[in-house]
């Protein structure tokens, strides 16, 4: 049985999980969509039997906390370090990455 073939379900699942966690945890991407694309590309590259990969992630926002009252500029994007999460997701971002 060839690794990544349609008959290698457990191997495919493990490689997909590893690729997803590795890239999601370390990617310096500016967007969730770009990160999902990289994750899907790697899953497809490592598994010949995988034709398409679909991800769906919540669109969560984190708002910079206003801190000028203590003399800290935390609202300029380059300076923002402290963020408050919004309680509910604003939607669901999904992507399907497939072979050509």
Automatic annotation (TrEMBL):
EC number: 1.7.3.3
InterPro entries (alphabetical): Uricase
GO cellular component, as recorded: peroxisome
Pfam families: Uricase
Gene Ontology molecular function: any one: urate oxidase activity
GO biological process: purine nucleobase catabolic process; urate catabolic process
Source organism per UniProt: Serpula lacrymans var. lacrymans (strain S7.3) (Dry rot fungus)
Protein name: factor independent urate hydroxylase
Pathway: Purine metabolism; urate degradation; (S)-allantoin from urate: step 1/3
Keywords: Oxidoreductase, Purine metabolism
Family in the record: Belongs to the uricase family.
């Amino acid at each position: 049985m060839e690794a990544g073939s349609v008959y290698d379900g457990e191997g495919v699942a493990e490689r997909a999980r590893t690729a997803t966690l590795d890239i999601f945890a370390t990617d310096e991407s500016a967007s969730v969509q770009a990160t999902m694309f990289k994750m899907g590309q790697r899953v497809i590259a490592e598994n010949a039997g995988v034709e398409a990969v679909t991800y769906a992630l919540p669109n969560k926002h984190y708002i910079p906390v206003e801190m000028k009252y203590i003399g800290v500029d935390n609202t300029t994007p380059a300076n923002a370090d402290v963020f408050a999460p919004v309680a509910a997701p604003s939607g669901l971002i999904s992507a399907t990455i497939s072979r050509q």
